Amino acid sequence: MLASVVERTIDTWYDEKGTPPAKREEMNGFRPNCLQAKAGYKARPLDGIWAAGPFLHNGSVPSLFDLLSPLSERPKTFCLGLRSYDPVKVGYKTDCAEGTFTVDTGIPGNTNVGHEFRGTGSGGSGIIGRGLSEQERWDLVEFLKTL
Ligand code: HEM
């Protein structure tokens, strides 16, 4: 439906402007108006990621530093609900206090596995890169703050 509406809208614009076929092809990027990505989970852009914690699609990792750490070092439980920000690890503070609730990553749907930098990075489910030294993680956190 969306593709059809978009196509009609574009064609109407081309018709109104009298755009010749060759120019239309060029402006279409020489590709059909359809989904270009293969089937798979599409990661969001990382612009403003410093403000988007907790991380991963299910909010199961509280900070960017934790996300760059191996699963064994990610918090298994943490509290959410505070509005105080942690500019060091980059994410909301996870202290438990009145009004907060506990995220338990052991509950189905809350799992914090995947997107892991571990070992040589040469295999394993959810492993996307080699293990990062602590300094490399802090350096990446600094970079991510700038996006
Ligand atoms: C140093 C390299 C990388 C950095 C700093 C990085 C950073 C991030 C961050 C911060 C997120 C969380 C986004 C959010 O919570 O909204 C994310 C998500 C994601 N990244 Fe990466 N990433 C890196 C490499 C990769 C690689 C190599 C892949 C694929 C092979 C990948 C695939 C994904 C996917 C699929 C998600 C979404 C996961 C989800 O929401 O559960 N990333 N990345």
Automatic annotation (TrEMBL):
Origin: domain of life: Bacteria
One Pfam family linked to the record: RoxA-like_Cyt-c
Protein name (record): Cytochrome c domain-containing protein
